[in-house]
Amino acid sequence: MTAVTTARLPLFPLNTVLFPGLVLPLNVFEERYRAMMRELLKTDESEPRRFAVVAIRDGREVAPTAPGMPDQTSRPEKGPAAGFGPDPIQAFHHVGCIADAATIRERADGSFEVLATGTTRVALRSVDAGGPFLTAEVEEIPEEPGEGAGTLAEGVLRAFRNYQKRLAGARERSLSTASELPDEPSVVSYLVAAAAVLDTPSKQRLLQAPDTATRLREELKLLRSETAVIRHLPSLPATDLTRSPMSPN
């Protein structure tokens, strides 16, 4: 039997899906997340500074009256669960990703610039709002290859290059070359999931796929569908394959 690995980690809910291997830049200015970063900085630099990232299903990434986003008509919403309702776990998707903060820089105003990388998928088991920031008990989800993952990855890469070409208006110089794209099936599956222009529910379904092959099959369908749609649209923004957009908290 495989041992189940669980951990209690700081929890950072976002309006985006983080995938293993992808970079996540964060602009941290709310007090609850500043407190989280100050706590992570207590961890020795030789150890990983880990926190869990989950996509928000129902709630606000930034509390309505947070600094920089004032709401003069309502009373300030405070506390680690602000914006997520009385039972925070219900506001989040239940599969997320552990992030390892390689860089945590405090600015003069007390906010933080953070650069983290997704590492391992996790299932959200419980959420605790009793401290200065949310914490969660999470269980690691192993990545199973599934049947035919290698062949599927080749097909997804071909479909992805065609999709890129459509996004870039067929300007070959703007496309990644074959040498820049990976060939390991799970890496392909996560890279394509992060890079494709998809809504959060679609990306979440890809994150929580039971194995790599299932994720690749779904991506093949999505890429073919999206490429067909793009043919009839004047333009779409190209995406960055190695970084996620800067996320406010």
UniProtKB/TrEMBL annotation:
It comes from the Bacteria. GO terms for biological process: proteolysis. Pfam families: LON_substr_bdg. Residues 62-81 are annotated as: Disordered. Keywords: Hydrolase, Membrane, Protease, Transmembrane, Transmembrane helix. SMART domains: LON. Residues 6-227 form the Lon N-terminal domain. One of its GO terms (molecular function) is peptidase activity. The chain crosses the membrane at residues 12-29. InterPro entries: Lon_prtase_N, Lon_prtase_N_sf, PUA-like_sf. PANTHER family: ATP-DEPENDENT PROTEASE LA (LON) DOMAIN PROTEIN. This is ATP-dependent protease. It comes from Streptomyces pacificus.
